[in-house]
């Protein structure tokens, strides 16, 4: 954990918009950048009335003293951040690095799979496997060519990059599970697969590797509240046991995860989440009218 550098919080030093829903924020936080390891996340509060949301540390630069977050605007808080987080503004609170770092080291051939929102979080893992001496293939999936990002960053740290697009406008036509199957066929001695993305995608990756007996790790994204193992909100079923993703994970053995339970739990607050977004959008609409 770390203290605030100034009373306004943590400065946003760079922003990039990858699409109308996906954006990157680079945030100044030298202590976090020093402590962060692949697989970890932060809990962010935008302002003092804001909710706490978990976001993966998609990159960290110890020399610049910054961490990078890549965010998809899916609901009230992530849309509000999309609107108000500009270069020079601040995030009020940033707690972390949280979660167990990924277990990296000793693998010879690894395939890192990132689909949609999982593309950014898989990057620090791919880089760390490479630094630990593994041969790394990245399989990254997007809906279409215009949404592709960080291909150059993956090419700089991986031995092979397989880009997949749903419509075939770039790379392989199909989703990342197709790319994963190709990568395994080309390298049957792959000893580990890491997959990050929507639960349905991670489940499909787990089923693709199960018959080959390849160890497969997924990073789970259940709803989190405190991020410290106290509230039980992030409970996940792993094999016959229960784990808390915020302190026991977020990485788990994909072949042991009950993905159906995870998907049901992710929808628990859908009505309240929609009401919060509707209220926020109405508030923005009234604000825009008043400004005219
Ligand atoms: C360990 C972890 C890492 C994550 N990393 C990223 C990331 O790098 N980039 C990114 O865009 N998103 C990431 N997420 C998901 C992100 O936290 C949610 O999209 C965000 O909390 C949604 O908040 P909202 O108010 O915008 O939307 P809401 O309307 O509140 O929720 C939209 C959907 O997001 C999920 N969600 C809502 N609240 C939470 C919560 N407190 N914790 C987790 N999920 C929630 C639910 O499935 C919900 O249906 C991560 C989640 C976890 C658990
Ligand atoms: S978020 Fe509360 S126990 Fe994990």
Automatic annotation (TrEMBL):
FAD binds at residues 70-72. One of its GO terms (molecular function) is 2 iron, 2 sulfur cluster binding. [2Fe-2S] cluster binds at residues 231, 234, 246. Residues 5-104 form the FAD-binding FR-type domain. It holds the Pfam family DHODB_Fe-S_bind. It comes from the Bacteria. One of its GO terms (biological process) is pyrimidine nucleotide biosynthetic process. This is Ferredoxin-NADP reductase.
């Amino acid at each position: 954990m770390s203290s605030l550098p100034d009373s306004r919080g943590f400065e946003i030093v760079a922003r990039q918009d990858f699409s109308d829903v996906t954006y990157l924020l680079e945030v100044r936080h030298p202590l976090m950048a020093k402590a962060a390891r692949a697989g970890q996340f932060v809990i962010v509060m935008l302002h003092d009335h804001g909710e706490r949301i978990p976001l993966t540390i998609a990159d960290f630069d110890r020399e610049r003293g910054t961490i990078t977050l890549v965010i998809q605007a899916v609901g009230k808080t992530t849309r509000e951040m999309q609107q108000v987080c500009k270069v020079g503004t601040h995030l009020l609170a940033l707690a972390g690095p949280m979660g167990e770092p990924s277990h990296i080291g000793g693998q010879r051939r690894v395939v890192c799979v990132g689909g949609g929102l999982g593309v950014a979080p898989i990057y620090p893992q791919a880089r760390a496997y490479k630094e630990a001496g593994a041969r790394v293939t990245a399989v990254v999936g997007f809906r279409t060519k215009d949404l592709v990002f960080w291909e150059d960053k993956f090419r700089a740290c991986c031995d092979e990059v397989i880009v997949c697009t749903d419509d075939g406008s770039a790379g392989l036509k199909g989703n990342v599970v197709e790319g994963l199957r190709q990568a395994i066929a080309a390298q049957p001695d792959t000893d580990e697969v890491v997959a990050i993305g929507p639960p349905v995608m991670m489940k499909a990756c787990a089923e693709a590797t199960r018959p080959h007996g390849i160890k497969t790790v997924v990073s789970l994204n259940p709803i989190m509240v405190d991020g410290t193992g106290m509230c039980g909100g992030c409970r996940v079923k792993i094999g016959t046991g229960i784990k808390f993703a915020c302190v026991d994970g977020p990485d788990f053995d994909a072949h042991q995860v009950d993905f159906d339970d995870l998907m049901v739990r992710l929808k628990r607050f859908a009505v309240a989440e929609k009401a919060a977004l509707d209220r926020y959008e109405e508030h923005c609409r009234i604000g825009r009218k008043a400004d005219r």
